[in-house]
Amino acid sequence: MRLSGRRAVWVAVVAVLVVGVAAWLVWPSDPPVRGQEQTIAVVDGPADDQRVTLDATFFPPAGGGKAPAVLLAHGFGGSKQSVRDSAVRLAQEGYAVLTWSARGFGRSSGQIALNSPDYEVKDVRQLVDWLARRPEVRLDASGDPRVGIAGGSYGGAIALMTAAYDDRIDAIAPQITWYDLADVLFPNATGQGPESGVFKRMWAGLFFSRGGPQAAGGLAALTGQGGIGGQDGQAGQDGGDPQAVPGGQDGRSPGTVRPPTVEEVRCGRFLPEICDMYQQVAETGRATAAAVETLRRSSPVSVQGKIRIPTLLLQGQRDSLFPLGHADANARAVAATGAPVRVAWFDGGHDGGNGEVDWLHEQTLSWFDHYLKKAPVGDTTGNAPPVVAGAPQPASGSPAEGPEGVSVFTVTRDGGRDPGTRRPVQLHAVTGVYPGLSGSRQVSVPLSGPEQPVANPPGGSPASISAIPGFGGLSTGSANLSLSVDMAGQSASFESAPLSAPLQITGSSTVKVRVRVASTGTGAGAGEEKAGGEAGETAGGPQDVTLFAKLYDAAGGTQAPVLPEGLVAPVRITVPEGGAGEATVTLPAVDHRFEVGHRLRVAFTTTDLGYDTPASPAVYQVSLASPALAAPTVTSLTAPSTGPAWWTWALPLASVLVATVLVLAGRRKLRDDHTPGLDAVPLRIEGLTKAYRNGELAVDDLSFTVEPGQVLGLLGPNGAGKTTTMRMMLGLIHPDRGEIRIFGHRVVPGAPVLSRLGSFVEGAGFLPHLSGRANLELYWKATGRPAGDAHLDEALEIAGLGAALERAVRTYSQGMRQRLAIAQAMLGLPDLLVLDEPTNGLDPPQIREMREVLIRYAARGRTVIVSSHLLAEVEQTCSHVVVMHRGRLVTAGPVGELLRSRTTGNGMSTRLEDVFLDLIGEKA
Amino acid sequence: MNDANGAAAGPDASGTGGGTALAARDREHGAARGYSPRHTLPLSVEIVRQFRRRRTMVMFGLLLALPWVLVIAFKVGGGWGRPGGNSLRISDLAADGGLNFAAFALSVSASFLLVVAVALFCGDTVASEADWSSLRYLLAAPIPRDRLLRQKLVVALGYSAAAVICLPLMALLAGTLAFGWNDVRVPGTGEVIPALDVLPRFGVVIGYALVSQLVVAATAFLLSVSTDSPLGAVGGAVGLVIVSTILQAVEALGSLREFLPTFWNTAWLDALAPQPDFSGMIKGVAVAVAYAAILFAFAFRRFRTKDVVS
Fold first, then answer.
1. Per the CB < 8 Å rule, is A652 touching B42?
2. Strand pairing partners for A882?
3. What's the total number of domains in chain A?
4. If I label A493, which of A171, A702, B83, B137 is the partner at 20 to 30 A Cα–Cα?
């Protein structure tokens, strides 16, 4: 039984493994998605006369049939390969996905026009035409596919621009993209527009170099989040991409590398007009009206009111290139048309951060599922309520219920650490109203600080550092890593008192600053000044002062102040001659929690690594025009309590259920199997069989009966099965066959009739740390029987341990333990006493005494069973004997009869020993 | 016979009891007078049996002494090496007050010392009886197997709970005497929470520490009924914790790791955050209860049919 049980367990384990592996192998995996390489010819240009071939990949929907389409655009410097992973993912979700390399990128021909309506937008419109002809794509009307556009950065902007120019687009989900490219390159936090903005030199340079002659690898940051989910695979793919060789059009075979032409080196794949524009503004550091005009033509700012479809704006919080303000402006522009808008500030952007690839994918998917998949045919989604262009709408977007899981406004916050992994987790705080950058409520935080002089170093070096454009990846690992360094003497700072309550700022704080010019230039001329630059104005009259405003979180103590997300707000303030310039500075939009005891610190520095600053030295006096910071808060932003995962309830419930079944299923009701006729028979064994684990029989079909008053000797050599039989008598081991009855009651584990049986089997069993007396007392208490029934004194008398009784049992000799164990067996004067080798380890006087005790014990009508191989002992003690050998009964009967039967044969007096040897010899 | 002349009867009173040997027949299921399965192995008896063991004493001595050792360590090394890093670790704040100190003491002991303590009390309980051979006499008494196991489990869990509770309580006492009764400073941000607000949360922490040790207890107990070697049972349970901790470090397992028995062991730290977050603890309780229920059920099932051969 044991063996088969074990085997059954193994069989079960193997079966479970086999089933598991099989299930794993045949488990339906995501349907495979195979991209079809396409070359799509388009015609664009202002006069619609330029032929361009776009390198595209079409991913049919995994489920087959007609499905909504998604155009997936890549980031600047990327190609269709950058968004391949996202495309496959979307296709698996049942979308027809078209990715393409924009003109001027990858293997597509043409030149980069920066998402110009004349070029890239026309290209994408023709891609929509192409989609409308595909049999896999669901149509709203002839030539009008059900289609959405998603993409990040450059790809996000094309989504917005195309949505404005093509009303066949049904929904868009642009990420980390711009509203006004002029404002991106020439930001001015005083709100005076890009013409007076500070040139974002380093980002601009990186941006334009990515469109230029391309080096393999390099800075992938610009396209860092080029598409939904395309982030990680991209840098590598780009690097190894054969098309990423100079002059990509003809770079198809890497073997035919030729030196780039002068024009290629100068402008890369940019359209010459764009290239010239950039070279001009980069040289002067000032935006010309023409440049602003060009840049704005490529920006959603030029198409206000034209985007009237559901728009999901996913903007990164760590983005010094396209800060949150751009998503805000886009949101307001789209919301003004009445189309549904959702805004999310996630942990990512061009400066790194987590990226939240999966979350962005889920959001985009929910968005498209709602507006592309579920919207009824013919209803081109967002336009559902006829919209009067420019009709005032709350900035909160459409109040109509949107897609599940996409909130009107979501902000990714630090969710502390995962309770299990102890790694940072993102928490998504949501609210039903989009508050904009000024928050739903303004908190005024008093700031203090005297007027402070700050120096503009000659040549703008060394520069303070806020973020390092293009190296966002460096700080990806730890979100709190702050690279910011303010150079000594270049910074004026104003601090609040330590906060008495935490302050969560969500949006752009504002502060009013006053600037005076203390000294200028090294000499009146500042000879090497740049044409038209601010240095030209130093000679007299109003002067432009460039400052960089930062909002620090100063914890105090030894901790360095933290510049949230590494963002700065560049300002250019015009200071009249001899007077003071004032400006309201809009600080960078952040979502940041200032803890209790921390201070808010507003700092103004004269330099920043990422920006163009005046070269001529100067000293300004900076003070606050009003000693307070207006901090926006959005108190309704809360992370929904997701509630515990379903398994939190299901798992323990299921497990308790299984446990209950496990416990109850095998339970045998303690049913007393009682034969009344045998009430007077202390022991009857019938057909008892027990096999060892190896199958050999320890006890083989053993049957005998013991009558009251007998002292029965169980005789047999070692291995005869005596002890095994005794164990079965006690219910310690389960017989394979047969049964044991004690006073008519069948023995099962824990059978109550065992309380009438005292036992000593195979050695003593005591708690070594307790005294002999405590052992016996506790044993009796453990039986739960009345203390008066124990007859402890009589038992102790038999043990005869004297003073040793109070010592710990571990100090006892073997004989002492033996006697104590026999005393324990006699506690309560049981009707049946079972002793296994009781005289082992006793000295001759003790053996004699034990013999008398046993005979006396049986004389009172009780029954004693003694196993022994000391035959002389048995002969003197026992009235009856059972002889066993190799598990089988050899003979049974009164000792005298056994002796007699043997003596009659040869006439000699025979000792039991001889009989025994004779018997087992015969059987052997 | 033992009913009639029980107290007087003895081995010497031969002859008188011969006819009364059968007197027990009318008792329930043939049991001896006064025997009832429901009264076998009372909890008090088992508590006494276990309490006077040296390992029980040593373990409690260790748990009660550890806070004082830590106090001395902080006093001796006081003031040195508080790093100026961005976040305060729980050890940086240990000397801030009694509650901080107790949290620190719990955090350093929960991952191993308390595991060993719980594994000892639950793993040793049946296996040591088997080791001493006293198990068979208890079973032959007879104490029904389910009842024996239940009583032993209750006592073992009681000792485990006492061990888990006494350490933070002693740490609270020692910390309060040594560092004063101060408000709690939270690791990480250094925010201060009033001491009285934290006390109930501290109760939650101790309760969670108890529940999260259930898996160790159940594993040790199952091993205890499966083996005759107390060390094997204790070591096996500790080994399981070690293996689970190692697996926990395998990121590739992803969210499967949430179902490792040790995964949520540190979730109680969230209860001491400025905004207590109980989600991790709820998951931890779910996992712990799920494992423990199954393992305990297996223990009972196994012991019920086991051949006691020791």
1. no
2. A714, A892
3. 4
4. B83
